[in-house]
């Protein structure tokens, strides 16, 4: 056998061995799970990442052993440009192929939640947003007006414009995107409710109804009282009686509020003081939920003009006349012999006192 023939056969044998070795390695790569932890592996595919950067990162994290095979499989599957950013959970037994399919389709993506609670003010909403570690924060240095401008509605005040609900998002989503979803949800809910409203409501437009809903959201102790309090509010508006709703005073007082409404607060001339100004305040005072919005659109058809918290603070006693109201106040006082030591009940006594001074039948 000539030297050339020996070299050729040796080279062919080595090539065949390499091919067999690569084939075996490829088959093992496809079949062997890369996640063996029973709890799986969480991995965040950040916005702007590519499959190449992901494969390198997974290799550095000791999850992938063959990033080149991983990229070859990406090209073979034709998903090079199909990467979906987000946080993923790769369960135990995940193979490279399954991992690629998850990232390319968004399957198994982890969603986080953010809840806007009915009755939240926009200030409270912003504080809660800023505490979320899963969101990308783009609004922290913006004013309320600047946020509304970013949302494309600079003509609107932010208060009351975001629908209370639980919103789901992927990690590193922008807080402005979440606010946009909540804003759009409020517009949809409000406009739908306004289009199906009862006749003869004392509101000129849906925004006035939103203001009213924000007030009764803060005033009601239980949901069943929402339509009743909405009825009281509507009755007082129709008769031209000042609303005298404590939550509007509290909102106007702002950071000075310490749990008690003082006489000076009731006499303060600010646009939210419904003990001084007739009609609705200029903007909502909270984010009203669906029940509050529905309540102002379909208020209870009662003749009540007054209400006071019952002695246990759980619900309200509603009255048609000032005489009935004063009796209800007295009954509330009798229920608790330490009445003047209870800040919450003192607030309602003060409310009753001022209603006696300022209200008319």
Description:
It is a single chain. The protein is mainly α and 361 residues long. The chain has three domains: 29-105, 2-Layer Sandwich (Dna Ligase, domain 1); 112-191, no CATH class; 199-358, no CATH class. Helix content is 49%, strand content 8%. It contains 14 helices and six strands. The strands form three sheets. Strands 1-2 form a two-stranded antiparallel ribbon. It is rod-shaped, with a radius of gyration of 32 Å. The protein starts with a helix and ends with a helix.
Short description:
With 361 residues, the chain is mainly α. The protein contains 14 helices and 6 strands.
Write the layout of secondary structure elements.
Layout: H1 3-31, E1 41-45, H2 51-60, H3 67-77, E2 86-90, H4 96-105, E3 111-115, H5 122-130, H6 144-150, E4 166-170, H7 175-195, H8 206-219, H9 226-239, H10 246-253, H11 263-267, H12 290-297, E5 306-309, E6 316-319, H13 322-335, H14 343-358
Antiparallel strand pairs: 1-2, 3-4, 5-6
DSSP, total strands:
6
Low-confidence stretches: 337-361
Helix content: 40-55%
Summarize model confidence as the mean pLDDT: 87
List keywords for this structure.
single chain, two-stranded antiparallel ribbon, 49% helix, 14 helices, rod-shaped, 361 residues, Dna Ligase, domain 1, mainly alpha
């Amino acid at each position: 056998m000539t030297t050339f023939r020996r070299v050729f056969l040796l080279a062919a044998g080595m090539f065949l061995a390499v091919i067999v070795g690569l084939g075996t390695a490829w088959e093992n790569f496809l079949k062997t799970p890369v996640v063996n932890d029973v709890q799986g592996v969480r991995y965040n595919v950040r916005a702007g990442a590519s499959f190449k950067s992901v494969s390198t990162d997974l290799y550095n994290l000791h999850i992938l052993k063959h990033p080149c095979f991983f990229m070859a499989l990406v090209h073979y599957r034709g998903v090079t440009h199909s990467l979906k950013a987000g946080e993923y959970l790769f369960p135990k037994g995940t193979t490279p192929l399954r991992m690629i399919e998850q990232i390319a389709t968004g399957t198994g993506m982890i969603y986080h939640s953010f809840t806007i609670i009915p009755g939240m003010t926009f200030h409270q909403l912003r504080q809660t947003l800023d505490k979320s570690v899963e969101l990308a924060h783009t609004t922290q240095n913006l004013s309320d007006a600047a946020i509304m401008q970013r949302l494309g509605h600079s003509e609107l005040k932010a208060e009351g414009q975001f629908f209370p609900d639980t919103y789901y998002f992927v990690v590193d989503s922008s807080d402005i995107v979440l606010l946009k979803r909540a804003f759009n949800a409020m517009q949809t809910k409000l406009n739908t409710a306004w289009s199906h409203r009862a006749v003869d409501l004392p509101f000129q437009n849906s925004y006035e109804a939103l203001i009213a809903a924000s007030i009764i959201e803060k005033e009601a102790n239980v949901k069943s009282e929402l339509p009743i309090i909405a009825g009281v509010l509507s009755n007082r508006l129709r008769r031209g009686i000042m609303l005298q709703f404590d939550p509007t005073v509290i909102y106007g007082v702002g950071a000075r509020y310490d749990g008690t409404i003082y006489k000076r607060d009731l006499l303060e001339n600010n646009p939210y003081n419904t003990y001084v100004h007739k009609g609705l305040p200029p903007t909502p005072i909270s984010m009203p939920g669906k029940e509050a919005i529905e309540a102002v659109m379909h208020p209870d058809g009662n003749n009540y003009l007054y209400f006071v918290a019952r002695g246990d603070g759980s619900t309200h006693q509603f009255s048609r006349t000032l005489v009935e109201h004063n009796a209800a106040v007295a009954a509330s006082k009798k229920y608790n012999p330490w009445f003047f030591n209870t800040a919450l009940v003192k607030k309602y006594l003060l409310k009753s006192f001022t209603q006696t001074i300022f209200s008319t039948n």
